[in-house]
Amino acid sequence: MKIIDCHAHIGKEGDKNIDLAKIKIHLKRNKINKVVLFPFISDTLTQDSLKILELSKKNKFIIPFIRFNPNTITKKELEKLLDNPFKGVKLHPRAEKFNPLDQKFDWIFKEIQKHNIPILFHCKSYHFDPDSHPEKILKLAKRHPKQIFILGHFAGVNKELFKEYVKQKNIYVETSIDVTPNAYREVVLKYGFKRLLFGTDFPYSFGEIELMKLKFANLGKEMEERILYKNAENLLNKQSKNF
User: Fold this and answer.
1) pLDDT in tens, 145-203
2) From residue 50, how far is each of 104, 156, 184 by CA, in Å?
3) Residues of 203-220 as b/e, b for ≥16 C-beta within 10 angstroms?
4) Are strands 34-39 and 62-67 parallel, antiparallel or unpaired?
5) What is the rounded CA–CA span in Å between residue 126 and residue 64?
6) Chain-centroid distance, C-alpha 88
7) Strand-pair category, 119-121 with 88-91
């Protein structure tokens, strides 16, 4: 069975120092075929993203996503960046200190939509992280119905909101860190939400741990395949014939 890891980091942050060799070990150890890669939080997000893009040209297992700061990016800069063959965008409201519902950022989402690539949002429900709350991203998805949004970290584990995600066809949910076997079963079996994308958030978690959660959810082979690679392939194939 193939596996696509839809959430992993490369570069340096604090005590984390992840290079290409460590990414390859992560993939080999967990039999992961492809990995969505983007930089850690830094003051050089776009430069770091472009380095990942260069790595992807020689390492076809890398799916490069771009990061940038919405507060400082200009329209000209974003247009130039998006002309590169990135497969998606990663945004982190807490780290980049922006409210995604502030209308002054709408032009960014409209610009990304032109390139037909998804946006992966850091998504949490912590009281100290209000701009990353899944309700905000849900409202944003309703405001921009033609843009695909991926809610990271199991959408902040607000399971009741999955009733809304089922109806909102431009929402996918990435599973890293916060999912549990019971949460998998509840959203799939109770709410019927199937647009799940497997992720590890390596190196903050590990493939062994995240794969074990899915195994113990006991959702059956067909659903496991959808989560592990088919949903990601279907989503990203729409963006690039070369995927």
Assistant:
1) 999 999 999 998 888 899 999 999 999 999 999 999 999 999 999 999 999 999 999 99
2) 26, 29, 34
3) bebebeebbebbeebebe
4) parallel
5) 28
6) 8
7) parallel
Q: Name the amino acid, one letter, at 123.
A: C
Structural contact between residues 182 and 157, judged by C-beta atoms closer than 8 angstroms: no
Angle at the Cα of 17 from the Cα atoms of 42 and 127, rounded to 5 degrees: 50
Correct CATH for 4-237 of 3.20.20.120, 2.60.40.10, 1.10.1660.10, 3.20.20.140: 3.20.20.140
Q: Where are the domains positioned within the chain?
A: 4-237
- Distance (Å, rounded) from C-alpha 95 to C-alpha 111? 22
Per-residue pLDDT tens over the stretch 191-200: 999 999 999 9
Q: What is the pLDDT of residue 237?
A: 81
Give the chain's residues under pLDDT 50. Answer: 240-243
pTM as predicted: 0.96
Q: What is the dihedral of CA 147, 152, 154, 160, to 10 degrees?
A: -50
> What b/e readout covers 18-33, taking b as 16+ CB neighbours within 10 angstroms?
beeeebeebbeebebe
Query: For residue 238, what pLDDT is reported?
Result: 64
